[in-house]
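To close the section, here is one more complete example, presented without commentary so you can practise reading it yourself. The ligand is magnesium ion.
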Amino acid sequence: MSESKDFLRVKIEEDLKSGKYQNIVTRFPPEPNGFPHIGHAKSICINFGIARDYAGQCNLRMDDTNPTTEDTKYVEALKDAVTWLGFKWNGKVRYASDYFPKLYDYAVQLIQMGKAYVDSLNEEEIREYRGSVMEAGRRSVYANRSIEENLALFEGMKEGKFKDGEHVLRAKIDMSAANMKMRDPLLYRIRHAHHFRTKDTWCIYPMYDFAHCLSDYIEGVTHSICTLEFENNRDIYDWVLDALELTPPRPYQHEFARLGINYTVMSKRKLLELVNGNYVNGWDDPRLPTIAGYKRRGYTPESIINFCEQIGIAKANSMVDVAQLEFCIRDDLNQKVPRVMCVLDPLKVTIENYEGEEEIDASYYPHDVPKEGSRKLPFSREIYIERDDFMENPIEGYHRFTPTQPVRLKHAYILTCKEVVKDANGSIVELKATYHPDSKSGSDTSGIKTKSAIHWVSAKHAKQIEVRLYERLYKVDAPENVEDLNPDSLHVNKNAFIEPSVICEKVDVRFQFERQGYFYADPMDYTDAHPVFNKIVGLKDSWAKKAEVPEPTMKLEVKKVHVEGVITPLSEAEQKCFDRYTKELELNSEIANTLARDEKLSSFYEATLLHVKSPTTLANLVANEVARELKKELPLSFGATEVAELVIMLDEGVISSKIAKEVFEAMVHTGEKPKAIVERKGLKQISDPAIIAIMIEEVMAKNPENLAKYKAGNTNLFGFFVGQVLKNSGGKANPALVSELVSKKLKQ
Ligand code: ATP
Ligand code: MG
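Output:
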């Protein structure tokens, strides 16, 4: 989010400037013992991203020093993940096992220098001798072996003369070191096991602490970037490289915070348990945080890279909200994919006054997406609508189809309900309706008002498809084990109906199913005969909804409607209008009065209302901003469409009400479209709780004194924190949300 460089890049630039290195070489060093997950994606983005930014190289190296858990299928999955994310490793894939002969020679060298010895204590004794944080350890008696004896024993270990655990090779460092890891760490152990690459050539294997630093050195790595849990291993890393007195330059280790995401497990061990225990359907199950899972679900590499960039590189571990990842995929697909109609829970509607069939030309993309294309939508007498888009006894505020409330079929006509057909149990099985021939979208002269548009498909032409709907895999935000799994994480719906163009035209593999979310043709199971779609993500953050984010509202500038104390009574038509506004649309009487008394205003209001869902937001804008312009009696530089566009942005939280006024001013002066103004001026409001949460963290981290003061009772500082966040966001953060989240955070 901020333009400033992360600490790794700062260090790298220093090292280049000082001439410590001429070329930057990084590496991504996974152990091939499981499929890579989103945490690895972060590491991939860091290592490959740095190499790209400094015209260096990044190696892909399999850290395959543990023969019992590793496998080629994991190697393939790792290569696949890096490639899918769009990166290229330098040269061929490297393997720590390729360096086994060199590593052995380095070990011999250490023994010859008197810096390593063969120890014959057993595992338990080794642990006991190591001491504790509070007390120094004791050195094993075997540490006194002569160099010759050590060389002979180490060779015997290699020759297979001993059993597992009989001897180990240890570095001779310091048994009382404060860093426990430095108390004569193990360098080699005996393991009579088959390795997936070196087969049975070796029966001794180097430990991570010995193999990693030397593999880095052998490859000419300059910056060895790893996660924080290796902080204490850094001393060994340095010791090994220095002890061997290697020709410079040598690599240095730098640690960053590993990625954690709520509602997600990210350890390969836990993922392996899910796969092997059949809690999920393989490593590429779309509910898993594996790259293979995201890929199968329909995530794009761009969205994952954006996510990794957004969360940045930190030195302290923290938890990222999974909503932020979902935001990134939504944000990416919004600009890319065609919009189509699919009914997930069909309710048949027979249009009694419609004969024959027709094809409606419908754009694949809304006007704010810079892509073109349209398809023919077949329309006929029998259609399916979504079951919950009809309510026989509607609750208050229900804006869709009811026995008395007509509804618009998206891209098509307005329907009026005539009859509700039920089965013996009283369940609705069908609706009978009539359509209004003069209400066709784009050329509607019917004058019928509807409050919303719903999606539909022609029953005869629609294709039946299977959709797989995913919920979070875990029901708790910090899952520990399989007991925390969400039992409802997968819903398979085999009775969804989609418009035919999706199957026949193949404009894309990802779609927005209008009003439902983003979907992806399953790359494994999809066939034209049996189409299967995965739900990638919903249209809205269902999470944010739960947090009850207040809707942005326009501040009212109360208009004087009574001139000099004289109240002119409303005419009959005006009264009717007034009643509709206050009762049906629930506008406040002040605003309703302003609109109802002015024919120009009310007709502008009505025309715009056709395109938007929030009568109140629109009414405020028309009664204030639009009214002011109309009074000037000059030709208007905007129409209903433009005002609707503005209201939709307000409703969707893209802009704040304060910004809306600014945009309106610009519309009046330049005649530009509101979207274009918002883009050009960068006025988008930030309403993603996850992003705001990060801004709050930043502000709190920068102001520890004020935080302490607040906690000590100075609650006046609440405003300071809110103000700082708003300021840092350039006035773009949603103020209500900021204040809600700051308040929550301060209570923690
Ligand atoms: P896990 O605990 O999931 O098994 P790991 O660290 O053992 O992960 P490796 O295959 O050894 O997995 O990791 C390869 C690289 O990816 C290492 O450099 C590691 O630091 C990095 N990495 C692994 N998990 C994460 C994470 N959650 N966030 C950032 N980087 C990670
Ligand atoms: Mg590991």
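Once you have examined the tokens, check your reading against these statements. Residues 31 surround magnesium ion (ligand 2) (CB under 6 Å). The domain at 21-256 is CATH 3.40.50.620 (Rossmann fold).
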